[in-house]
Amino acid sequence: MTDVDALVTHRHLDVGELRMHVVEAGEGPLVLLLHGFPDFWYSWRRQIPALVDAGHRVVAPDLRGYADTSAPDGVDAYRMRHLVGDVVGLLDALGEERASLVGHDWGGMVAWAAAMAHPDRFPRLAVCNIPHPETFRAALTSSRQALHSWYALLFQLPVLPERALAVRDGWLLRQALRSGATDPASFSDDDLDRYVEALTVRGELSGPINYYRAAARAGLRRSRRSAAGSGSGSGSGSGSGSGRVEQPVLVQWGERDHALLASLADPPPDLVPNAEVVRYPSAGHWVHLDAWQQVNDALIGFLAPDGTTPSDERP
After folding, report:
1. How far is residue 287's CA from residue 134's CA, in Å, rounded to a whole number?
2. 35 a catalytic residue
3. What CA–CA distance (Å, rounded) separates 274 from 252?
4. H/E segment holding residue 20
5. What residues pair up with 240 in beta bridges, in sequence order?
6. Gly residues bias located where (predicted)?
7. Strand bridging mode 9-15 / 18-25
8. How many whole angstroms separate alpha carbon 128 and alpha carbon 131?
9. 212 is known as an active-site residue
10. Dist. CA 276–CA 43, nearest whole Å
């Protein structure tokens, strides 16, 4: 496997209010890779070389608040409209009109919202272990998914979550990463050292946790509007309005996800009429690391000009 560090170039770009750190490699049609929580660009270490070999220009940022990208103060700075604006701003800063989006976890939620709001700029969307926003919102009303999402409630507390994840050389952060994977090779000790250094030494954890706080506040605002009879809208915070994605969508899902039910993988067909879902029964939340070879094959096929994707279950 190609050493991703030898392949990528690092630089910082001015993206609106942010000084955004990105890594990039390759030439060809642009693919943006958006990481989740608690993560940074290095999440895509097994996808970047494969996409470059397949003839793509690949750019993987540290998202707002993470690692070497600046972290604006305040919870409201992490509302979805700002996160979507960052992705559009990144596209502009790169001098590109459009890009395919690939996202995992929170990066996948941002990718869903960006594809809804800007279909002309993001003609293809691939997500790993993150449901369509409407599917997830409905699931959170069930006790089963709410139980799996217990940590999101804990993250509403001030200060404590940041401190808990960072103490003892990031012991809890390391456990959160390793416990979400089914393949021990997905996170080596050296990998975990990099995560702790990026997220608690070079960066800090208030920005990443503020994604959850901002989402909870947005949910309260929707509930109040609904109770007042004004409707809830799409809830993405992106201004998309309908939650509809007409573009081709590839969903790849590790079914041994500790945080999200496997039943959430399929997007609503009335909102996402052009979707393929590939399931990996043996993979966990970090499906793109646990089953990286199969994920890469499906992703490269999806991003090819004919957009062919397998629809069978994967081991």
Report:
1. 22
2. no
3. 14
4. strand 18-25
5. none
6. 230-242
7. antiparallel
8. 9
9. yes
10. 23
Whether 24 contacts 9, CB under 8 Å: yes
What is the length of the chain?
315
Which candidate in 105, 132, 288, 290 is catalytic? 105
CB atoms under 10 Å from CB of 221, counted, come to 15
Nearest alpha carbon to residue 34 among 11, 64, 54: 64
Catalytic residue among 212, 280, 288, 290: 212
Query: Closest by alpha carbon to 132, among 149, 113, 157, 151?
Result: 113
* Dist. CA 136–CA 89, nearest whole Å: 26
Under a CB-based contact definition with an 8 Å cutoff, are residues 180 and 188 in contact? no
Using 50, 70 and 90 to split pLDDT, how confident is the model at 204? confident
Q: Tell me, what's the pLDDT at 242?
A: 75
- One-character DSSP codes across 54-69: TT-EEEEEPPTTSTTS
Q: Is the pLDDT of residue 313 over 80?
A: no
Identify the weakest region by mean pLDDT among 2-6, 18-22, 188-192.
2-6
Query: What's the confidence (pLDDT) of residue 228?
Result: 67
Cα distances from 136 to residues 130, 164, 186, in angstroms, run: 8, 27, 26
Q: Which amino acid is at 15?
A: V
Q: Round to whole Å and give the CA distance between 189 and 110.
A: 29
Q: Give the three-class secondary structure for 13.
A: strand
Domains of the chain: residue spans and CATH: 4-303 (3.40.50.1820)
- How many Cβ atoms are within 10 Å of 233's Cβ, its own excluded? 16
From 35, 148, 285, 288, active-site residue: 285
Q: What is the mean pLDDT of the chain?
A: 91
pLDDT grade, residue 219 (50/70/90)? Answer: confident
The two tokens of residue 237 are 């915070």
Q: Is the pTM of this model over 0.70?
A: yes
User: Which one is predicted more confidently, 47 or 312?
Assistant: 47
